[in-house]
Amino acid sequence: MISINKDNYFSYIIIPCILFFGCANNQSITVEDIDIEIPDKWQTTIPSYEPLTGDWWSLFSDPKLEIFVKEIMQNSPDIKTILNNRKMAYQNAKINGSGVFPTLNSSINSTKSQQNLSGFGFGKFFSNINGGQDSSATESNDEVITFDSESFGLSLNFQWEIDVWGRALNGRRAAFKDYESIDYELSYLAFSTIIRSAQTYFQAVEASEQLKIAEESYASLEKIRDLVQDRFKRGLKSSLDFRLAETSVSTAKIAIEDRKNQLHSFNRGLEIISGKYPIGLLVSNHALPDTIPHISIGIPADIITRRPDIKALILRVEASGLNLSQAKRNLLPGIMLNGSVGTSATKLRDILNKENKVWSLGAGMTSPLFNGGRLRSAVKIQESVVENSKQELIQGLLLAFSEIETILYLEESIKVKIEAISNAVNQSESAYLLSSERYDRGVTTLESVLNSQRQYNDIRSRYLTLKRQRIENRLSLLLAIGGSYESQTVN
Known about the structure:
Layout: H1 9-22, H2 63-75, H3 77-96, E1 103-118, H4 123-129, E2 144-162, H5 167-233, H6 239-273, H7 302-306, H8 308-329, E3 334-345, E4 357-366, H9 374-440, H10 446-480
Antiparallel strand pairs: 1-2, 2-3, 3-4
Protein backbone atom coordinates (compact mmCIF):
# COMPACT_ATOMS: atom_id res chain seq x y z
CA MET A 1 0.00 0.00 0.00
CA ILE A 2 1.35 3.36 -0.99
CA SER A 3 1.02 6.11 1.58
CA ILE A 4 1.12 9.80 0.76
CA ASN A 5 2.25 12.33 3.29
CA LYS A 6 -0.37 15.00 3.83
CA ASP A 7 2.35 17.62 3.55
CA ASN A 8 3.13 16.36 0.06
CA TYR A 9 -0.49 16.26 -1.08
CA PHE A 10 -0.11 19.46 -3.04
CA SER A 11 2.95 18.10 -4.83
CA TYR A 12 1.39 14.74 -5.70
CA ILE A 13 -2.10 15.85 -6.68
CA ILE A 14 -2.35 19.58 -7.37
CA ILE A 15 0.83 20.10 -9.39
CA PRO A 16 0.07 17.36 -11.97
CA CYS A 17 -3.41 18.80 -12.43
CA ILE A 18 -1.93 22.24 -12.95
CA LEU A 19 0.46 20.89 -15.55
CA PHE A 20 -2.31 18.99 -17.34
CA PHE A 21 -5.05 21.60 -17.37
CA GLY A 22 -3.17 24.84 -16.99
CA CYS A 23 -0.65 24.12 -19.72
CA ALA A 24 -3.06 22.53 -22.18
CA ASN A 25 -3.02 24.24 -25.56
CA ASN A 26 -6.20 25.74 -26.84
CA GLN A 27 -6.89 24.62 -30.34
CA SER A 28 -7.09 27.62 -32.63
CA ILE A 29 -9.76 27.69 -35.32
CA THR A 30 -8.52 27.93 -38.89
CA VAL A 31 -10.37 28.06 -42.18
CA GLU A 32 -9.44 24.42 -42.72
CA ASP A 33 -11.57 23.57 -39.69
CA ILE A 34 -14.63 25.12 -41.31
CA ASP A 35 -16.79 22.88 -43.47
CA ILE A 36 -16.85 24.97 -46.65
CA GLU A 37 -15.45 24.46 -50.13
CA ILE A 38 -13.50 27.39 -51.56
CA PRO A 39 -13.16 27.48 -55.38
CA ASP A 40 -9.78 27.89 -57.03
CA LYS A 41 -10.89 30.81 -59.20
CA TRP A 42 -13.75 33.25 -59.77
CA GLN A 43 -16.50 32.32 -62.19
CA THR A 44 -16.38 35.77 -63.76
CA THR A 45 -13.00 37.41 -64.24
CA ILE A 46 -11.66 40.76 -65.27
CA PRO A 47 -8.23 41.42 -66.76
CA SER A 48 -5.34 41.14 -64.33
CA TYR A 49 -4.26 44.53 -63.04
CA GLU A 50 -1.65 45.76 -60.68
CA PRO A 51 -2.70 45.63 -57.03
CA LEU A 52 -4.27 48.79 -55.69
CA THR A 53 -2.65 50.04 -52.51
CA GLY A 54 -2.26 53.26 -50.56
CA ASP A 55 -4.31 56.35 -51.30
CA TRP A 56 -6.66 54.82 -53.87
CA TRP A 57 -8.67 58.04 -54.14
CA SER A 58 -5.69 59.87 -55.66
CA LEU A 59 -5.89 57.62 -58.73
CA PHE A 60 -9.06 59.41 -59.86
CA SER A 61 -7.03 62.59 -60.41
CA ASP A 62 -9.70 64.65 -58.68
CA PRO A 63 -8.27 67.15 -56.15
CA LYS A 64 -11.76 67.79 -54.74
CA LEU A 65 -12.19 64.06 -54.03
CA GLU A 66 -8.82 63.88 -52.26
CA ILE A 67 -9.73 66.82 -50.03
CA PHE A 68 -13.17 65.34 -49.38
CA VAL A 69 -11.81 61.91 -48.33
CA LYS A 70 -9.20 63.45 -46.02
CA GLU A 71 -11.86 65.64 -44.41
CA ILE A 72 -13.98 62.55 -43.80
CA MET A 73 -11.09 60.82 -42.05
CA GLN A 74 -10.45 63.84 -39.84
CA ASN A 75 -13.86 65.37 -39.22
CA SER A 76 -16.61 62.89 -40.06
CA PRO A 77 -18.91 62.30 -37.05
CA ASP A 78 -19.39 58.72 -38.27
CA ILE A 79 -15.63 58.04 -38.31
CA LYS A 80 -15.15 59.70 -34.91
CA THR A 81 -17.95 57.56 -33.48
CA ILE A 82 -16.30 54.43 -34.88
CA LEU A 83 -12.95 55.38 -33.31
CA ASN A 84 -14.62 56.03 -29.95
CA ASN A 85 -16.42 52.68 -30.14
CA ARG A 86 -13.04 51.08 -30.80
CA LYS A 87 -11.63 52.68 -27.66
CA MET A 88 -14.62 51.50 -25.63
CA ALA A 89 -14.21 47.96 -26.97
CA TYR A 90 -10.56 47.98 -25.89
CA GLN A 91 -11.43 49.12 -22.37
CA ASN A 92 -14.20 46.50 -22.13
CA ALA A 93 -11.64 43.86 -23.09
CA LYS A 94 -9.39 45.03 -20.26
CA ILE A 95 -12.32 44.83 -17.83
CA ASN A 96 -13.44 41.38 -18.99
CA GLY A 97 -9.89 40.07 -18.94
CA SER A 98 -8.92 41.47 -15.54
CA GLY A 99 -9.81 38.27 -13.67
CA VAL A 100 -6.26 36.98 -14.12
CA PHE A 101 -4.91 39.72 -11.84
CA PRO A 102 -5.29 40.03 -8.05
CA THR A 103 -7.48 42.76 -6.59
CA LEU A 104 -5.87 45.23 -4.23
CA ASN A 105 -7.86 47.75 -2.19
CA SER A 106 -7.03 50.23 0.52
CA SER A 107 -9.36 51.35 3.28
CA ILE A 108 -9.42 53.73 6.20
CA ASN A 109 -12.07 53.49 8.88
CA SER A 110 -13.20 55.03 12.10
CA THR A 111 -15.36 53.21 14.63
CA LYS A 112 -17.11 54.58 17.68
CA SER A 113 -19.01 52.21 19.96
CA GLN A 114 -20.94 52.20 23.26
CA GLN A 115 -21.42 49.24 25.58
CA ASN A 116 -23.77 48.78 28.56
CA LEU A 117 -23.35 46.48 31.61
CA SER A 118 -26.45 46.01 33.70
CA GLY A 119 -27.32 43.98 36.74
CA PHE A 120 -23.93 42.42 37.31
CA GLY A 121 -22.97 44.27 40.52
CA PHE A 122 -19.98 45.98 38.98
CA GLY A 123 -21.02 49.54 39.74
CA LYS A 124 -19.08 49.97 42.99
CA PHE A 125 -16.02 48.29 41.45
CA PHE A 126 -15.82 50.70 38.54
CA SER A 127 -16.61 53.60 40.83
CA ASN A 128 -13.79 52.73 43.22
CA ILE A 129 -11.27 52.51 40.41
CA ASN A 130 -11.58 56.19 39.68
CA GLY A 131 -12.36 57.29 43.20
CA GLY A 132 -16.03 57.22 42.56
CA GLN A 133 -15.65 59.43 39.44
CA ASP A 134 -15.20 57.61 36.12
CA SER A 135 -15.14 59.79 32.97
CA SER A 136 -16.03 56.93 30.71
CA ALA A 137 -18.60 55.23 32.90
CA THR A 138 -21.64 56.38 34.90
CA GLU A 139 -23.49 54.57 37.66
CA SER A 140 -27.19 54.85 38.22
CA ASN A 141 -29.42 53.39 40.83
CA ASP A 142 -30.04 50.25 38.77
CA GLU A 143 -26.33 49.69 38.27
CA VAL A 144 -26.21 50.45 34.50
CA ILE A 145 -22.65 51.16 33.39
CA THR A 146 -21.99 52.80 29.96
CA PHE A 147 -18.65 52.52 28.17
CA ASP A 148 -17.61 54.60 25.14
CA SER A 149 -14.76 53.49 22.88
CA GLU A 150 -13.25 54.75 19.62
CA SER A 151 -10.82 53.12 17.15
CA PHE A 152 -9.15 54.00 13.83
CA GLY A 153 -7.82 51.65 11.17
CA LEU A 154 -5.76 51.82 7.98
CA SER A 155 -5.46 48.68 5.84
CA LEU A 156 -4.37 47.31 2.46
CA ASN A 157 -6.40 44.28 1.35
CA PHE A 158 -5.81 41.85 -1.48
CA GLN A 159 -7.66 38.91 -2.98
CA TRP A 160 -6.42 36.60 -5.71
CA GLU A 161 -7.68 33.40 -7.22
CA ILE A 162 -4.67 31.33 -8.24
CA ASP A 163 -5.31 30.46 -11.86
CA VAL A 164 -4.10 26.86 -11.59
CA TRP A 165 -6.37 25.65 -14.41
CA GLY A 166 -5.87 28.61 -16.70
CA ARG A 167 -9.56 29.54 -16.74
CA ALA A 168 -8.89 33.20 -15.96
CA LEU A 169 -6.19 33.26 -18.64
CA ASN A 170 -8.64 31.77 -21.15
CA GLY A 171 -11.17 34.41 -20.19
CA ARG A 172 -8.59 37.13 -20.77
CA ARG A 173 -7.59 35.66 -24.14
CA ALA A 174 -11.25 35.39 -25.16
CA ALA A 175 -11.88 39.00 -24.12
CA PHE A 176 -9.08 40.29 -26.31
CA LYS A 177 -10.08 38.02 -29.20
CA ASP A 178 -13.50 39.63 -28.96
CA TYR A 179 -11.83 43.04 -29.00
CA GLU A 180 -9.77 42.15 -32.08
CA SER A 181 -12.96 40.95 -33.75
CA ILE A 182 -14.74 44.21 -32.95
CA ASP A 183 -11.67 46.17 -34.07
CA TYR A 184 -11.74 44.47 -37.49
CA GLU A 185 -15.48 45.05 -37.78
CA LEU A 186 -15.09 48.73 -36.94
CA SER A 187 -12.16 49.08 -39.33
CA TYR A 188 -14.25 47.56 -42.11
CA LEU A 189 -17.16 49.81 -41.16
CA ALA A 190 -14.89 52.86 -41.34
CA PHE A 191 -13.53 51.81 -44.71
CA SER A 192 -17.06 51.11 -45.91
CA THR A 193 -18.11 54.58 -44.75
CA ILE A 194 -15.33 56.17 -46.80
CA ILE A 195 -16.17 54.07 -49.88
CA ARG A 196 -19.89 54.86 -49.64
CA SER A 197 -19.05 58.53 -49.20
CA ALA A 198 -16.87 58.44 -52.34
CA GLN A 199 -19.75 56.83 -54.21
CA THR A 200 -22.04 59.61 -53.02
CA TYR A 201 -19.42 62.12 -54.16
CA PHE A 202 -19.49 60.71 -57.70
CA GLN A 203 -23.28 60.78 -57.63
CA ALA A 204 -22.96 64.50 -56.95
CA VAL A 205 -20.46 64.84 -59.81
CA GLU A 206 -22.88 63.06 -62.13
CA ALA A 207 -25.65 65.40 -60.97
CA SER A 208 -23.38 68.34 -61.86
CA GLU A 209 -22.87 66.94 -65.38
CA GLN A 210 -26.57 66.14 -65.73
CA LEU A 211 -27.31 69.76 -64.87
CA LYS A 212 -24.90 70.85 -67.60
CA ILE A 213 -26.72 68.66 -70.16
CA ALA A 214 -30.07 70.11 -69.04
CA GLU A 215 -28.73 73.66 -69.43
CA GLU A 216 -27.32 72.87 -72.88
CA SER A 217 -30.66 71.37 -73.89
CA TYR A 218 -32.48 74.46 -72.66
CA ALA A 219 -30.14 76.73 -74.62
CA SER A 220 -30.59 74.76 -77.87
CA LEU A 221 -34.37 74.67 -77.43
CA GLU A 222 -34.41 78.43 -76.87
CA LYS A 223 -32.63 78.92 -80.20
CA ILE A 224 -35.16 76.66 -81.93
CA ARG A 225 -38.04 78.50 -80.23
CA ASP A 226 -36.68 81.92 -81.27
CA LEU A 227 -36.21 80.71 -84.85
CA VAL A 228 -39.72 79.27 -85.04
CA GLN A 229 -41.18 82.39 -83.44
CA ASP A 230 -39.51 84.62 -86.02
CA ARG A 231 -40.75 82.48 -88.88
CA PHE A 232 -44.22 82.28 -87.32
CA LYS A 233 -44.44 86.06 -87.20
CA ARG A 234 -43.50 86.18 -90.87
CA GLY A 235 -46.11 83.55 -91.68
CA LEU A 236 -43.57 80.93 -92.65
CA LYS A 237 -44.42 78.48 -89.85
CA SER A 238 -47.66 77.39 -88.26
CA SER A 239 -48.78 78.16 -84.74
CA LEU A 240 -48.40 74.43 -83.95
CA ASP A 241 -44.63 74.62 -84.41
CA PHE A 242 -44.43 77.69 -82.22
CA ARG A 243 -46.49 76.08 -79.47
CA LEU A 244 -44.42 72.86 -79.61
CA ALA A 245 -41.18 74.86 -79.36
CA GLU A 246 -42.53 76.96 -76.47
CA THR A 247 -43.65 73.83 -74.62
CA SER A 248 -40.23 72.22 -75.06
CA VAL A 249 -38.50 75.30 -73.61
CA SER A 250 -40.76 75.32 -70.56
CA THR A 251 -40.21 71.60 -70.02
CA ALA A 252 -36.44 72.07 -70.29
CA LYS A 253 -36.56 74.84 -67.67
CA ILE A 254 -38.34 72.49 -65.24
CA ALA A 255 -35.65 69.84 -65.89
CA ILE A 256 -32.94 72.37 -64.99
CA GLU A 257 -34.55 73.11 -61.65
CA ASP A 258 -34.91 69.40 -60.91
CA ARG A 259 -31.22 68.85 -61.63
CA LYS A 260 -30.28 71.84 -59.46
CA ASN A 261 -32.30 70.47 -56.55
CA GLN A 262 -30.70 67.04 -57.00
CA LEU A 263 -27.18 68.48 -57.00
CA HIS A 264 -27.93 70.67 -54.01
CA SER A 265 -29.26 67.69 -52.08
CA PHE A 266 -26.16 65.58 -52.84
CA ASN A 267 -23.88 68.43 -51.80
CA ARG A 268 -25.67 68.85 -48.49
CA GLY A 269 -25.30 65.14 -47.80
CA LEU A 270 -21.59 65.22 -48.61
CA GLU A 271 -21.02 68.19 -46.32
CA ILE A 272 -22.78 66.45 -43.45
CA ILE A 273 -20.62 63.36 -44.02
CA SER A 274 -17.45 65.47 -43.90
CA GLY A 275 -18.55 67.28 -40.74
CA LYS A 276 -19.39 70.64 -42.35
CA TYR A 277 -22.43 72.86 -42.12
CA PRO A 278 -24.63 71.82 -45.07
CA ILE A 279 -24.80 74.76 -47.48
CA GLY A 280 -24.85 72.65 -50.65
CA LEU A 281 -21.82 74.12 -52.44
CA LEU A 282 -19.23 71.33 -52.37
CA VAL A 283 -19.47 70.04 -55.96
CA SER A 284 -20.02 72.21 -59.04
CA ASN A 285 -18.90 72.04 -62.66
CA HIS A 286 -17.21 68.69 -62.09
CA ALA A 287 -16.76 65.89 -64.63
CA LEU A 288 -16.70 62.13 -64.09
CA PRO A 289 -13.23 60.63 -64.66
CA ASP A 290 -12.73 58.64 -67.84
CA THR A 291 -10.31 56.23 -66.13
CA ILE A 292 -10.81 54.28 -62.94
CA PRO A 293 -8.34 52.59 -60.58
CA HIS A 294 -7.09 49.14 -61.54
CA ILE A 295 -7.59 46.38 -58.98
CA SER A 296 -6.13 42.91 -58.78
CA ILE A 297 -8.75 40.62 -57.27
CA GLY A 298 -6.50 37.58 -56.79
CA ILE A 299 -8.18 34.25 -55.99
CA PRO A 300 -11.22 33.46 -53.80
CA ALA A 301 -9.08 32.25 -50.88
CA ASP A 302 -7.58 35.74 -50.62
CA ILE A 303 -10.86 36.94 -49.14
CA ILE A 304 -10.07 35.08 -45.95
CA THR A 305 -6.87 37.00 -45.36
CA ARG A 306 -7.85 40.38 -46.84
CA ARG A 307 -11.36 41.18 -45.66
CA PRO A 308 -11.47 42.60 -42.12
CA ASP A 309 -15.04 41.42 -41.60
CA ILE A 310 -14.03 37.81 -42.39
CA LYS A 311 -11.07 38.13 -40.02
CA ALA A 312 -13.54 39.35 -37.40
CA LEU A 313 -15.69 36.24 -37.86
CA ILE A 314 -12.65 33.97 -37.55
CA LEU A 315 -11.60 35.71 -34.34
CA ARG A 316 -15.13 35.32 -33.00
CA VAL A 317 -14.87 31.58 -33.52
CA GLU A 318 -11.54 31.53 -31.69
CA ALA A 319 -13.00 33.58 -28.83
CA SER A 320 -15.96 31.23 -28.49
CA GLY A 321 -13.53 28.29 -28.28
CA LEU A 322 -11.64 29.99 -25.45
CA ASN A 323 -14.91 30.75 -23.65
CA LEU A 324 -15.83 27.08 -23.98
CA SER A 325 -12.52 26.08 -22.41
CA GLN A 326 -13.14 28.52 -19.58
CA ALA A 327 -16.65 27.12 -19.00
CA LYS A 328 -15.25 23.57 -18.75
CA ARG A 329 -12.59 24.65 -16.27
CA ASN A 330 -15.21 26.29 -14.08
CA LEU A 331 -16.09 22.70 -13.07
CA LEU A 332 -12.68 22.39 -11.35
CA PRO A 333 -11.81 23.54 -7.82
CA GLY A 334 -10.58 27.06 -7.17
CA ILE A 335 -7.82 28.24 -4.83
CA MET A 336 -8.23 31.68 -3.29
CA LEU A 337 -5.62 33.75 -1.43
CA ASN A 338 -6.61 36.74 0.65
CA GLY A 339 -4.88 38.93 3.14
CA SER A 340 -4.50 42.37 4.60
CA VAL A 341 -1.90 44.56 6.25
CA GLY A 342 -2.44 47.81 8.12
CA THR A 343 -2.68 49.54 11.48
CA SER A 344 -5.24 49.85 14.23
CA ALA A 345 -5.22 52.55 16.95
CA THR A 346 -7.52 54.16 19.47
CA LYS A 347 -6.40 57.62 18.41
CA LEU A 348 -6.21 59.04 14.91
CA ARG A 349 -2.71 60.47 15.44
CA ASP A 350 -1.38 56.97 16.13
CA ILE A 351 -2.75 55.42 12.94
CA LEU A 352 0.64 55.59 11.17
CA ASN A 353 2.56 54.22 14.16
CA LYS A 354 4.26 50.99 13.06
CA GLU A 355 3.83 49.58 16.56
CA ASN A 356 0.09 49.40 15.88
CA LYS A 357 0.40 47.32 12.71
CA VAL A 358 -1.87 44.35 12.10
CA TRP A 359 -1.90 41.76 9.30
CA SER A 360 -3.63 38.62 8.16
CA LEU A 361 -3.10 35.99 5.47
CA GLY A 362 -5.42 33.21 4.44
CA ALA A 363 -5.97 30.62 1.76
CA GLY A 364 -8.94 28.49 0.82
CA MET A 365 -10.16 26.04 -1.76
CA THR A 366 -13.65 25.89 -3.14
CA SER A 367 -14.97 23.09 -5.27
CA PRO A 368 -18.34 22.95 -7.00
CA LEU A 369 -20.29 19.97 -5.66
CA PHE A 370 -23.88 20.73 -6.53
CA ASN A 371 -25.29 23.76 -8.33
CA GLY A 372 -28.34 22.37 -10.04
CA GLY A 373 -26.42 21.60 -13.25
CA ARG A 374 -25.75 25.31 -13.86
CA LEU A 375 -22.06 24.92 -14.74
CA ARG A 376 -22.59 21.95 -17.05
CA SER A 377 -25.44 23.79 -18.76
CA ALA A 378 -23.07 26.72 -19.24
CA VAL A 379 -20.67 24.35 -21.02
CA LYS A 380 -23.48 23.14 -23.30
CA ILE A 381 -24.43 26.73 -24.08
CA GLN A 382 -20.85 27.59 -25.01
CA GLU A 383 -20.64 24.52 -27.26
CA SER A 384 -23.67 25.87 -29.11
CA VAL A 385 -22.06 29.33 -29.27
CA VAL A 386 -18.96 27.79 -30.88
CA GLU A 387 -21.08 26.01 -33.47
CA ASN A 388 -23.12 29.15 -34.18
CA SER A 389 -19.95 31.23 -34.65
CA LYS A 390 -18.68 28.64 -37.14
CA GLN A 391 -21.93 28.85 -39.09
CA GLU A 392 -21.75 32.66 -39.04
CA LEU A 393 -18.25 32.40 -40.54
CA ILE A 394 -19.51 30.07 -43.26
CA GLN A 395 -22.40 32.43 -44.00
CA GLY A 396 -20.01 35.40 -44.09
CA LEU A 397 -17.70 33.63 -46.54
CA LEU A 398 -20.57 32.63 -48.81
CA LEU A 399 -21.95 36.17 -48.83
CA ALA A 400 -18.49 37.59 -49.55
CA PHE A 401 -17.95 35.22 -52.47
CA SER A 402 -21.42 35.95 -53.84
CA GLU A 403 -20.88 39.70 -53.47
CA ILE A 404 -17.65 39.65 -55.45
CA GLU A 405 -19.06 37.35 -58.15
CA THR A 406 -22.02 39.73 -58.56
CA ILE A 407 -19.73 42.76 -58.78
CA LEU A 408 -17.47 41.05 -61.34
CA TYR A 409 -20.47 40.05 -63.45
CA LEU A 410 -21.82 43.59 -63.28
CA GLU A 411 -18.36 44.88 -64.28
CA GLU A 412 -18.57 42.96 -67.55
CA SER A 413 -22.18 43.99 -68.11
CA ILE A 414 -21.44 47.70 -67.60
CA LYS A 415 -18.47 47.45 -69.95
CA VAL A 416 -20.70 46.10 -72.74
CA LYS A 417 -23.34 48.77 -72.08
CA ILE A 418 -20.81 51.62 -72.18
CA GLU A 419 -19.40 50.43 -75.50
CA ALA A 420 -22.91 50.25 -76.95
CA ILE A 421 -24.08 53.59 -75.59
CA SER A 422 -20.91 55.38 -76.71
CA ASN A 423 -21.86 54.47 -80.26
CA ALA A 424 -25.46 55.50 -79.59
CA VAL A 425 -24.32 58.94 -78.40
CA ASN A 426 -22.43 59.55 -81.63
CA GLN A 427 -25.30 58.33 -83.79
CA SER A 428 -27.96 60.31 -81.92
CA GLU A 429 -25.88 63.49 -82.19
CA SER A 430 -25.59 62.99 -85.96
CA ALA A 431 -29.34 62.34 -86.18
CA TYR A 432 -30.10 65.53 -84.25
CA LEU A 433 -27.84 67.66 -86.46
CA LEU A 434 -29.28 66.07 -89.59
CA SER A 435 -32.89 66.63 -88.53
CA SER A 436 -32.12 70.28 -87.68
CA GLU A 437 -30.57 70.77 -91.09
CA ARG A 438 -33.53 69.15 -92.84
CA TYR A 439 -35.96 71.28 -90.84
CA ASP A 440 -34.15 74.43 -91.95
CA ARG A 441 -34.65 73.24 -95.54
CA GLY A 442 -38.29 72.46 -94.85
CA VAL A 443 -37.87 68.77 -95.51
CA THR A 444 -38.94 67.51 -92.04
CA THR A 445 -41.18 68.62 -89.20
CA LEU A 446 -40.29 70.43 -85.98
CA GLU A 447 -41.60 67.47 -84.03
CA SER A 448 -38.91 65.32 -85.65
CA VAL A 449 -36.23 67.82 -84.60
CA LEU A 450 -37.49 67.95 -81.02
CA ASN A 451 -37.64 64.16 -80.77
CA SER A 452 -34.11 63.75 -82.09
CA GLN A 453 -32.85 66.42 -79.69
CA ARG A 454 -34.64 64.77 -76.78
CA GLN A 455 -33.22 61.35 -77.72
CA TYR A 456 -29.72 62.78 -77.99
CA ASN A 457 -29.89 64.32 -74.52
CA ASP A 458 -31.48 61.21 -73.00
CA ILE A 459 -28.69 59.01 -74.36
CA ARG A 460 -26.04 61.44 -73.08
CA SER A 461 -27.72 61.32 -69.69
CA ARG A 462 -27.78 57.52 -69.68
CA TYR A 463 -24.12 57.48 -70.68
CA LEU A 464 -23.23 59.60 -67.64
CA THR A 465 -25.23 57.29 -65.40
CA LEU A 466 -23.36 54.25 -66.73
CA LYS A 467 -20.00 55.98 -66.19
CA ARG A 468 -20.97 56.71 -62.61
CA GLN A 469 -22.24 53.14 -62.11
CA ARG A 470 -18.92 51.81 -63.41
CA ILE A 471 -17.05 53.93 -60.86
CA GLU A 472 -19.41 52.86 -58.06
CA ASN A 473 -19.00 49.22 -59.04
CA ARG A 474 -15.22 49.53 -58.99
CA LEU A 475 -15.37 51.12 -55.54
CA SER A 476 -17.69 48.32 -54.39
CA LEU A 477 -15.15 45.81 -55.70
CA LEU A 478 -12.41 47.55 -53.75
CA LEU A 479 -14.53 47.22 -50.62
CA ALA A 480 -15.53 43.63 -51.35
CA ILE A 481 -11.99 42.32 -51.82
CA GLY A 482 -11.00 43.68 -48.43
CA GLY A 483 -9.70 47.17 -48.38
CA SER A 484 -8.26 48.36 -45.12
CA TYR A 485 -8.61 51.44 -42.98
CA GLU A 486 -5.83 52.28 -40.53
CA SER A 487 -7.47 53.79 -37.48
CA GLN A 488 -5.79 55.67 -34.68
CA THR A 489 -3.82 53.82 -32.04
CA VAL A 490 -5.77 53.08 -28.87
CA ASN A 491 -3.95 53.99 -25.68
